[in-house]
Amino acid sequence: MAVPARGREIDQSGVPLASANLSKQYAAQLAELASWCDQQGLKNEDETAKNWLPPDDPLRLFVAIAKDSPVNSGEKPSATAPSKGAQPKATQAESTEFQERFTKLRRTQAAALFDLATKAAANRQPREALALVSQVLREDPDHAEARRIMGYQRQGDRWLTAFEIRKARDGHVWDDRFGWLPREHVARYEKGERYYAGGWRSAADDAKAHADIRNPWAIGTEHYLVRTNHSLEEGVRLAARLERLYAIWDQVFLGFVATDEQLARRFAGRAGQAAEPRRHKVVYYRNRDEYVRALQKEQPNIGITSGYYWGDKREAYFFAGAEADDSNLFHEATHQLFSETRPVVRDIGREANFWMIEGVACYMESLQLRDGWSSLGGAEAVRLRDARHRLLEDKFYVPLAEFTGYGMERVQHDERIAMLYSQASGLMHFLMHYDKGRYRDAVVPYLAAIYTGRDQPSTLAELTGARYEDLDRQYREFLQSVP
């Protein structure tokens, strides 16, 4: 769930204002509960109540994925650890009372949020409605109607996607070390055995057999197929991180893949049976040397990269080791998601608006994964700091009226390319965070226009409803305000 910026412009439906008021009231209730915990000596519960909502940071977008499924389940939002250790003022009864009060608060908030989501859907605002439904699930993971809308089905005491249900019916379970396995294989894997080609062998022999990337381990998840010669466990870890990235990307850029009409059908429960999802292909090398050797013949500059998305092959390439870079992983994986989740034109951004393709990938580099709230942006984001330095210290800036006319060749062969990338990243932060997200709603339509070849140099001005000279001025104001 991408949390709406507080104080964004109010539309005629009144949903944003109601949502902001509801959040303010909820924050006050949680603060009151935290104060009660402090009085009772319930230290852990006090921290839980205080930190349940993210801080009010206009430069950061907080994202929470309520996903109770085998892969990427993360922290169970429905559970709160009881107090541990000596608690002289606390009793078990008081700890139980906290659990009851906290659960009641969250379920009440979830019901109110779902009412707002229904109102948004009735006012033909499906993206706003689905964003609210995601908030519902963080507060009440067992909200049946919200789960149905988001494509989950109940299986025992868990909510699973259609893909996960198919795996369960095939007798497979997810293991955080080994990925999807037949249930009966797990115990033998834990003992150091590995199944291959109808028989069993030791983990050491299995590693030797997969040492060459031409015969890799293949780890499949709902949205990814990772091939690696590093190790099964490291490939599984990478696949799980990519699934987490996918879930966040899908929330932040809701509407890039589906039209408003399709999103409305999803909210109404008429989306149809989920098809087998596309799996994005990733090759994960044991180290940088193997990565460079494998790709340098066709990509001569691969040695200066820490990851690469090859659009023509529809594959992303990364490597393990100390030199590996999570920010670059998020950058290249973002290129892959935008390029492969819907039909797109060849040579995206060839004629104009190429800056946005790199700007959004640079913005995703700021992703910080947490068990509770993950986030994007932030004053400490390296790309944002670089953009601020370029404009305010180096006095470098290409006006948007000119910059939006730069196509792929123009940017990639410009001797100022590093400066242009910094500006692109800064502009993306600006669109997402200026004036409490004033222009955030223009981001997805702008990206969709670029990736489908319907864009012009004037597209951004049309979508924001602002003249480029005004956006230039506001961009400077935005960077000046960054600590």
Describe this structure in words.
By secondary structure, this protein is of the alpha+beta class. It has three domains: 15-160, no CATH class; 210-340, Glutaredoxin, CATH 3.40.30; 354-481, no CATH class. The chain has helices at 15-40, 43-50, 92-122, 126-139, 144-149, 162-169, 186-190, 203-209, 232-252, 260-267, 288-295, 326-340, 354-364, 382-392, 400-403, 408-412, 417-433, 443-451, 459-464, 468-481, and strands spanning 60-63, 153-155, 158-160, 172-175, 179-182, 193-196, 199-202, 217-220, 224-228, 280-285, 308-310, 315-319, 374-377. The protein has a five-stranded mixed beta sheet. A two-stranded antiparallel sheet has the order 1-13. The model is unreliable at 3-10 and 73-88 (pLDDT under 50).
Descriptive labels:
483 residues; alpha+beta; Glutaredoxin; 3 domains; 5-stranded mixed sheet; 20 helices; disordered N terminus
